[in-house]
Design a protein that fits this description.
About 45% of the residues lie in helices and about 20% in strands. With about 190 residues, it is of the alpha/beta class. Strand 1, helix 1 (about 15-25) and strand 2 form a beta-alpha-beta unit. The two termini are about 15 Å apart.
């Protein structure tokens, strides 16, 4: 049975890497459903991820194409794994505080507690190391999110430090591992 993954893309320069992630996950046989924040769409067009995922991209929590379905609720019910990659400081803060003001955060809030949830931060080093961001990530870990730590290096802003999106292969490895663990618990 094909595993369904929601890839939630938030506003970060690393959003362009979601195309490679989507493509590689699709080639592994996963059914990828992409959610994008408005800020993410400024970095990469939804059409790119639609073509690579072979599924419509969800961008607006208020857009309901079918009257008998509530899109963000149904997406949450029908997924095997939820991942935010890249996860901006803003999206991390919204998730940690239970906000549901866009398609990404509303879907996340509607996820069953048993759904594996991964988060791959990507931001400036100072933002990542900020005590508020650390507190928000800790809050998310306490409610079941697994962090895929960003890597250190030269960032898009010119600073050097931890904050670059984890390597795509490391993200895929975390996804495979989380789905394997879920499979063990499902039996």
């Amino acid at each position: 049975m094909t595993k369904r993954i929601i890839l939630a893309v938030s506003g970060s320069i690393s959003a362009y890497k979601s195309a490679d992630l989507t493509s590689k996950l699709n080639k592994k046989g996963y059914d990828i459903h992409v959610i994008m924040t408005e800020a993410a769409q400024a970095f990469i067009p939804p059409l790119t991820l639609q073509v690579l995922s072979k599924n419509p991209v969800h961008t607006d929590v208020m857009e309901e194409k079918l009257a008998e379905r509530i899109n963000h609720i149904d997406l949450a019910k029908e997924t095997d794994l939820f991942i935010v990659a890249p996860a901006s400081a803003n999206t991390i803060a919204k998730l940690a505080h239970g906000m549901a003001d866009n398609m990404l955060t509303a879907t996340a809030l509607a996820l069953p507690s048993t759904t594996p949830k991964l988060i791959a931060p990507a931001m400036n080093t100072k933002m990542y190391e900020n005590p508020l961001t650390k507190k928000n990530l800790k809050t998310l870990q306490e409610v079941g999110y697994q962090e895929i730590r960003p890597k250190s290096g030269l960032l898009a802003c010119g600073d050097t430090g931890r904050g670059a999106l984890a390597d795509i292969d490391a993200i895929i490895e975390a996804i495979d591992s989380a789905l394997t663990r879920k499979g063990v618990y499902d039996e």
